[in-house]
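Collaborator request, handled under Task 6.
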Amino acid sequence: MDDVLDFVDVIADSELEGAFVWFLRLVGLLAVLAGLGLWLLTDMGLLVVPLALIVVGLAVAIAPDVLLSIAELFG
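Structure tokens returned to the collaborator:
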């Protein structure tokens, strides 16, 4: 966990913070859309993969703001 916070602290100190956050939001949005597409457009009996994609996509879309806030508080 310390390595992740160190990495986030480096990103927060650089001027690439906004680009990094938007990149992760885009990746999260694509994962959510892929999960919804698998769930709605295919005949999958097993809903674990679409659910996992949706949950991971939401976590990736929300996590950068939370991690950068934590890095600014403790950094």
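The cover message to the collaborator said: "The radius of gyration is 15 Å. The chain has three helices and no strands. Please let us know whether this matches your experimental observations."
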